[in-house]
């Protein structure tokens, strides 16, 4: 009894001539996600990717769970493979969906015949198979509008496939098909959500984290790594660059007006992220900022930080309330890690009264007291690279 996963590509179908290369990237991403479960074979045909386990003892429940988090998939189903023979189709359908049918009140058979050489037409398959199901389960009724159980039969080139209702995929487009972007990642709630949202639009992520030891601890850094290991469930493999930020923060504290500390610090973050992004072939920066959330996220403050980079800055949570951001953080399981109480460099030396409407000329004047290029070069020289390869799940499974 062979089972496979049938994967329907969603928005990819709109990509015209690029469709095939989009599908190739999608297959590569699914492969990466499934390889630790054992060997799968992949085949593409008619906006469907066939994902076939190569041995009988593979965990298809877990494979389906993983597939449900891969971007670029509209819907998928676990399907039973039958010979293109009506008797075998009936036998496999009753065996595969029998338990569901037993506990259901209503059902419906749907058939699609991509292989027109199959001798029965779709309505005939529905009628005949429906009859067989009713013979076996007397309590069932047919409901064509909202059946409890859908029995779907797809007759394709290589075989017949039987499955129930399709499950929704993660949507979006395959990671990598929109290029790369650098995500400024703190240990907070917002930035992992921002990264997830942009990965959904096909961006491969590179993490940039600013750490200020000894003001921020090793545990705070490990928390960021843990967050990215959670994000990897959706975002795939990533690199994380940890930038030493202590010297810069101390110099700003010592030489600049206190109320401009945060804004100047954020301008340094943007400049360093910009440099790193270009080296890593990233075409954009991503942050988890949301208008009005804190003093550094007012319209004027954002204008002062954006001006130091020519790269587009994506802020997917810019118009969201904290509550809405938290809902997504829970969905992708980063929330519990985000609220662990380790300090971030943003909370080191925070001014009592930060300027919410900083004036660019005053900010620039304050920066004149600093060796901006020298400080940036020093920080860049000390960058540590962490490869995020494993995936951290709630129950400790990888
Ligand atoms: P939260 O608001 O939940 O604490 P946050 O991630 O939004 O989390 P903020 O202090 O609001 O943290 O910072 C706004 C944005 O600036 C972050 O979303 C992130 O993109 C960036 N950022 C802040 N601190 C750091 C850091 N230490 N390293 C890299 N980026 C940072
Ligand atoms: Mg925030």
Tell me what you see in this structure.
This protein has 398 residues and is an alpha/beta fold. It contains 13 helices and 15 strands. The strands form two sheets. Strands 1, 2, 3, 4, 5, 6, 7, 8 and 9 form a nine-stranded mixed sheet that branches. A six-stranded mixed sheet has the order 14-13-10-11-12-15, with helices on both faces. The site of adenosine-5'-triphosphate has 19 residues, from helix 5 and strand 11.
Give the overall silhouette. Answer: elongated
As a percent range, the share of helical residues equals 25-40%
Instruction: Write out the distinct hetero groups bound to the structure.
Output: adenosine-5'-triphosphate, magnesium ion
How many helices?
A: 13
- Rg over alpha carbons: 26 Å
List its traits.
alpha/beta; nine-stranded mixed sheet; elongated; six-stranded mixed sheet; binds adenosine-5'-triphosphate; binds magnesium ion; 398 residues; single chain
What layout of secondary structure does this protein have?
Layout: E1 3-9, H1 19-34, E2 40-45, E3 48-53, H2 60-67, E4 73-82, H3 86-103, E5 106-113, H4 122-136, E6 141-142, E7 149-155, E8 160-163, E9 167-171, E10 180-184, H5 190-200, E11 204-211, H6 218-235, E12 238-244, H7 246-255, H8 261-279, E13 285-286, H9 299-306, E14 313-314, H10 322-331, H11 335-338, H12 360-367, H13 372-381, E15 384-388
Parallel strand pairs: 5-6, 5-7, 10-11, 10-13, 11-12, 13-14
Antiparallel strand pairs: 1-3, 1-4, 2-3, 4-8, 4-9, 7-8, 12-15
Helix pairs in contact: 3-4, 5-6, 7-8, 8-9, 8-13
């Amino acid at each position: 009894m062979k089972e496979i996963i049938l994967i329907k590509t969603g928005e990819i179908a709109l990509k015209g001539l690029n469709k095939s290369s989009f599908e190739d990237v999608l297959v590569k991403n699914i492969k990466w996600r499934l390889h630790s479960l054992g060997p799968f074979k992949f085949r593409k045909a008619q906006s469907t990717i066939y994902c076939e386990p190569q041995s009988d003892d593979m965990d298809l429940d877990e494979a389906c769970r993983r597939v449900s988090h891969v971007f670029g998939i509209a819907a998928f189903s676990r399907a039973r493979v039958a010979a293109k023979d009506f008797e075998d189709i009936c036998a496999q359908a009753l065996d595969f969906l029998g338990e569901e049918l037993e506990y259901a009140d209503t059902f419906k058979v749907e058939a699609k015949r991509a292989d027109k050489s199959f001798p029965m037409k779709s309505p005939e398959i529905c009628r005949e198979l429906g009859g067989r199901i009713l013979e076996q389960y007397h309590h069932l009724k047919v409901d064509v509008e909202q059946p409890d159980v859908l029995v779907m039969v797809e007759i394709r080139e290589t075989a017949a496939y039987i499955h129930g209702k399709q499950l929704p995929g993660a949507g979006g487009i395959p990671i990598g098909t929109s290029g790369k972007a650098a995500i400024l990642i703190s240990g907070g709630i917002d930035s992992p959500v921002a990264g997830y949202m942009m990965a959904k639009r096909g961006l491969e992520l590179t993490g940039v984290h600013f750490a200020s030891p000894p003001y921020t601890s090793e545990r705070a850094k490990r928390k960021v790594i843990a967050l990215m290991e959670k994000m990897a469930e959706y975002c795939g493999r990533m690199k994380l660059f940890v930038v030493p930020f202590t010297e810069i923060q101390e110099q700003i504290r010592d030489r600049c007006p206190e109320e401009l500390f945060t804004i100047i610090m954020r301008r340094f973050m943007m400049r360093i992220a910009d440099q790193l992004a270009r080296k890593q072939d990233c075409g954009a920066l991503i942050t988890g900022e949301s208008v009005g959330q804190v003093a550094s996220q007012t319209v004027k403050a954002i204008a002062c930080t954006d001006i130091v980079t020519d790269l587009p800055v994506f802020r997917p949570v810019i118009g969201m309330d904290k509550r809405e951001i938290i809902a997504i953080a829970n969905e992708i399981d980063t929330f519990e890690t985000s609220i662990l109480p380790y300090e971030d460099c943003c909370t080191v030396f925070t001014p009592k009264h930060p300027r919410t409407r900083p004036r660019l000329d005053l900010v620039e004047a304050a920066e004149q007291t600093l060796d901006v290029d020298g400080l940036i070069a020093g920080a860049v020289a000390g960058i540590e690279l962490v490869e995020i390869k494993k995936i951290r799940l709630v129950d400790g499974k990888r």
